[in-house]
Amino acid sequence: MATEKQELNPLVSRQSWLDERLDWARFKEKYLRKPFPVHSSFFLGEIALFSFIVLVLTGIFLALSYVPSTELVKLDGKDMPAAYASVVQNDHTPFGLIVRQVHHWAAHLMIVAILLHLLRIFFTGLYKKPRELNWVVGVLLLGLTVFAAFSGYLLPFDQFAVTATGIGYNIARSVPWVGPALANFIFAGKFPSTATIPRFYAYHVMLLPLILIILVGLHLLIMFKQKHSQPPYALRRAGVGKILGVPLWPHQTLLMAVLFLVLSGSLFIVAGLFPVHPVEYYGPPGPATPIVKPDWYLLWPYGALKLIPGWINFQFLGATINSENVGGVVIPGLILLLLLLIPFLDRSRESVHYLELPREHAARTAFGMAVLVFFGVLMVAGYNEELGLSVGALQFTALLAPLVTGLFTYVLLAALRRSRESVRDGPEIVTSVGANLDPVKDSEDLRR
Ligand code: HEM
């Protein structure tokens, strides 16, 4: 009788159908019940992932009409590069412009989410054992995402795109020893050559998405294998070795579905409210050079270029080292290297399974704040003329502001720590009704 009833229930019968063929119940128990911590900061990685999915979907739509060629074609009776003309035409087809704008804003959102995700991992010490490898994979993901955005910049092939990409070409050429060969390789000859657009198109729609997909897969696989870190209150609520969270199916999946829909909807609203500049505004490449600033995420090397003193110019092992390659290559290269090596430079060797609170790690938090302020000053330097700030004042600020911020953060957090410890080690607290409070436990509870 019971089996008859079960067979009448389509959900149960479908499950046993799947069980007989795919051992579904075991799969569900093993993988779909994986617990996920519920904490808003854990959504940052997912926002990066979902922005990437939106980029792939909108990118497929755009690729249907994009022509990766600089060959001249007729547009409104005038000769125009085919790439430029195809983007103009895309913007005049139904949904073409809005999809292009969503693609643009999704790229910005992905970079913002990755950076905030990186900061969460850094400030909570999650780069430490056992997650060093995933940190390195993450830094590669960040670099490749920025390069993917840069390669997309050129594709509309308007005067703006060509000027902005030209800055990147000059930076690549200035790399000591291998610069010209490297620039020729990346840009398919002297920029802008007829081969540059097909080369950048291949990077943008094939090579980089493929590497990103492989690396994101590896990143998530490592994360699954090592298990999620836990927010600090999980230890108190669930106990040692227990995970506090919701199962992947159905709870986490539903949360992710809601996040994906909200994110996609918001991108459409932003794309409708804040249009990207129309390609006709700058027109096809011509002799005039418009004043072009890099997007915010590449503004810091541009600012560094301005702040490096112009008198730097010497020969080193046959290569010319000057202000251009110090600001555009040496400083960004050192910063990338430092980022990659962070897990190996941190001398604390303990494994981390629960997020470390930034306020309890004064030295790391102070260092992180100093670096953030340094980047902030470099970004402001990118707009120094518009803001009326002298290069000299900015050079001074770039050295002093991070130092002051780091020191201030360290002193403040150390003082807070001492005051917490004095509460912990303070006298026994007796309530008016005579009940003994546990000072450690109660002050812990109050702090959560
Ligand atoms: C395309 C870029 C990236 C995507 C799509 C991505 C995605 C994710 C997702 C979905 C998670 C699990 C949820 C979470 O903990 O937030 C995660 C965890 C992690 N990510 Fe990323 N991530 C990216 C870049 C980075 C970067 C730049 C770093 C650091 C340099 C990084 C380091 C980590 C680490 C260490 C974990 C494990 C955290 C834990 O166990 O709680 N990721 N990532």
Spell out the blueprint of helices and strands.
Elements: H1 2-8, H2 10-22, H3 24-32, E1 35-36, H4 43-63, E2 72-75, E3 78-81, H5 82-91, H6 96-123, H7 132-154, H8 159-173, H9 179-187, H10 196-226, H11 233-238, E4 246-247, H12 248-273, H13 279-282, H14 299-307, E5 313-316, E6 319-322, H15 323-345, H16 362-381, H17 384-387, H18 391-424, H19 439-447
Antiparallel strand pairs: 1-4, 2-3, 5-6
Helix pairs in contact: 2-3, 4-6, 4-12, 6-7, 6-12, 7-8, 7-10, 7-15, 8-9, 14-15, 14-16, 16-18
This protein binds protoporphyrin IX containing FE.
Short description:
With 448 residues, the protein is mostly helical. It has helices spanning 2-8, 10-22, 24-32, 43-63, 82-91, 96-123, 132-154, 159-173, 179-187, 196-226, 233-238, 248-273, 279-282, 299-307, 323-345, 362-381, 384-387, 391-424, 439-447, and strands spanning 35-36, 72-75, 78-81, 246-247, 313-316, 319-322.
What would you note in describing this structure?
A hairpin with a 2-residue loop joins strand 2 (72-75) and strand 3. This protein starts with a helix and ends with a helix. The strands form three sheets. Strands 1-4 form a two-stranded antiparallel sheet. A two-stranded antiparallel sheet has the order 2-3. With 448 residues, the chain is mainly alpha-helical. Residues 431-448 have low confidence and may be disordered. The protein is built from 19 helices and six strands. The protein has two domains: 32-288, Cytochrome Bc1 Complex, Chain C (Up-down Bundle); 357-425, no CATH class. The chain is globular. Protoporphyrin IX containing FE (HEM) binds at residues 42, 44-46, 48-49, 52, 114, 117-118, 121, 126, 131, 134-135, 138-139, 141-142, 145, 216, 219, 223, 228-229.
